[in-house]
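Me: Here is a favour to ask of a fellow structure person. Could you put it straight underneath, so I can go through it closely?

Assistant:
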Amino acid sequence: MWFEILKFEIQYRAKRADTYLYFGILFLFSIIASEFIMNGSGTIGKVKINAPYVIASVMGIVTALFTMVISMIMGVAALRDFDHKMESLMFINPIKKRDYLLGRFLGSYLVLIFIFSGLLFGMLLGDLVPWPWRDMNNLLPFHLWHYLKPFLFLVLPNLFFCGAIFFVSGALSRKLMVVYTQGILLLMAYIFTMQLTRNADNQFIAAIFDPFTFQASKRITQLWTPVEINSQMLPMGGILLYNRLIWITLGAVSYTHLTLPTNREV
């Protein structure tokens, strides 16, 4: 039954114009994201615009900037039946709560991956096409894995834990405002980790608990030379692995808590 609900969720989203609007916005923004974000941060100098570290950083930042899209997809999926007064019809049918929630969650998550693939394809196109605003001499040779690896190991986990938090808050509160509030809380968590970095003794803690991995990436590369930044990818181990495991676990625990029999029915 959960698979039927998953298919319904994907078919529902495939018919909605906002699904493609979100994809298009992410795609177009990502074409210029490297220059827009990294030049403004002062990172670019001897570092190439498509260095592995730059690609990973931009993907993390764009994901954070577009958390509202995550809330619109995942939070609204949990609220839709209640907004349309359809919950009574849904639950007079022999649908288990676990199947209903799993189908809705996985279907919405797959739609979210499609939308944020606009980030991946936009950055790929931005670096492959000789745009008039881009100095092609400031580009490294193209390597597809430099884009796929951060998308798989940074973006997808971000989508999962953010999506789980938004989905759970929507299902439990049944209020869209509560869903949006979670995005503010994630932003506050990032600001808190930034404050921690002012004290050198707290940098490890900040890197571990930064939900978008900015501080973890900085800690890993703080002693790297421009040559190393241009040639090496972020190692998916050590402090970065701990960060990912913590936030993926948080998302999984949040979703699991929602499906426990002790919770009120959604």
Q: What stands out?
A: Confidence is low (pLDDT under 50) at residues 262-266. The chain is about 75% helix and 0% strand. The radius of gyration is 20 Å.
